[in-house]
Q: What sequence folds into this?
């Protein structure tokens, strides 16, 4: 049975807001592709707090998290594995794309996310 996320405190919510304000250029570009239900009518949230972690982009309906891997993920393999295990316990599936993927071919990334979510790509 999936673990229920821990209720969020005001400091966690403030951090999520700060992360959204300080988005990197690839995060902004991917958010442009995901927002407004542009992929299969799915609603994504960005910097979604789930327990003690933040998901870069989260679709609650499909229990899908899209993680954007950039320079901050270098040398964080153990942390990322622990974090991903927690998110899976909460019932989410995590897919990863790189900053280079987003910058080089945003349409291919969007098509990949649609496929992983099980929705048609127009």
A:
């Amino acid at each position: 049975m999936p673990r229920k996320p821990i209720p969020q405190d005001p400091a966690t919510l403030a951090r999520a807001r700060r992360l959204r304000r300080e988005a990197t250029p690839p995060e902004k570009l991917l958010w442009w592709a995901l927002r407004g239900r542009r992929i299969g009518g799915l609603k994504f949230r960005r910097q979604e707090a789930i327990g003690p972690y933040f998901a870069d982009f989260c679709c609650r309906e499909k229990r899908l998290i899209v993680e954007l891997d950039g320079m901050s993920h270098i040398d964080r393999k153990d942390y990322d594995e622990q974090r991903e295990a927690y998110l899976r316990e909460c019932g989410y599936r995590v897919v990863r794309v790189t900053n280079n993927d987003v910058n080089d071919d945003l349409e291919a990334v969007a098509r990949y996310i649609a496929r992983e979510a099980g929705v048609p790509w127009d």
In short: DSSP finds five helices and four strands in the chain. The first helix runs from residue 10 to 21. The chain has a mean pLDDT of 89.
